[in-house]
Amino acid sequence: MKERLFTTKNVVLMGMFSALGAVLMLFEIPLPFIAPSFYGLDLAEVPVLVGTFALGPVAGAVMEFVKILIKLVLKPTSTGFVGEFANLAIGCGLVVPAGIIYQINKTKKGALWGMIAGTAVMSVAGVVINALVMLPFYSNFMPLENIIAAGAAINPFVSNIWTFAIICVGPFNMIKGFVVSMITWLVYKRVSIIIHGVGAAKQVHA
Predict the structure, then answer these.
(1) d(Cα 50, Cα 189) in Å, to the nearest integer?
(2) Do 176 and 46 contact (CB within 8 A), yes or no?
(3) 131 near 162, Cβ under 8 Å?
């Protein structure tokens, strides 16, 4: 399996998808109706998810890791690597389950269910990681009361770390997973034709 994954062609592809993901990490879109402005939606998982469908879930985890390394070269950490760790864990929560399900069932239905499962896992992982790691860490730079207040300004039911994570972060990641999945759904077949050839692309999308 290791020999099949780390061929010259696959390593080049993983590097390309990771680099594109790292660049996309630099561009964020705020969703002020869901979460405070310090949360921004990026499309970094689109090339990684495309690469995961093409090369498998192990490749997806590798690309997530390499994406973070390249991003750190382009833009050094401002969170003591905590933000990058969270991005890695949450990103793997999306692409690995999606890749496993698609690897088992290489059809449009398999891809769809994979992305649904990945979005669900990513959303849950985002809630837990934010509540236990990210928000306590950011309280070193911004008082936790101010963070909670920023969430309460959007939704009055936010009153503590866990309600902030569930009400703001959970839906934020669900929207991100939906957007990433829809873009991947639209572009993957075209990319797959380039990677695998016309015949293989028709087979996996039957």
Answers:
(1) 9
(2) no
(3) yes
| 120 Cβ contact list (under 8 Å, min separation 6) | 177
- What per-residue string of b and e applies to 154-172 under the rule 16 or more CB within 10 Å gives b? bbeebeebebbbbbbbbbb
Residue 102 tokens read as 């698609």
- Measure the CA dihedral 132/61/189/106, to 10°: -100
What pLDDT is attached to residue 200? 47
Question: What is the average pLDDT value for the chain, to the nearest integer?
Answer: 90
Are 99 and 45 within 8 A, CB to CB?
no
Q: What is the mean pLDDT of residues 45-71?
A: 96
Q: Can you list the alpha helix ranges (DSSP code H) found in the chain?
A: 2-5, 8-25, 45-55, 57-74, 82-104, 108-129, 135-138, 144-154, 161-164, 170-196, 198-204
Q: Which residue has the tokens 């590798």?
A: 62
Quick check: 203 pLDDT over 50? Answer: no
Q: Which two tokens mark 20?
A: 């594109």
Confidence of residue 54 (pLDDT cuts 50, 70, 90): very high
Kindly report, residue by residue over 16-42, the tens digit of the pLDDT.
999 999 999 999 999 999 999 888 999
The verdict on pTM exceeding 0.70 is yes
Contact 117, 99 (CB under 8 A): no
Indicate the length of the chain as a whole number: 206
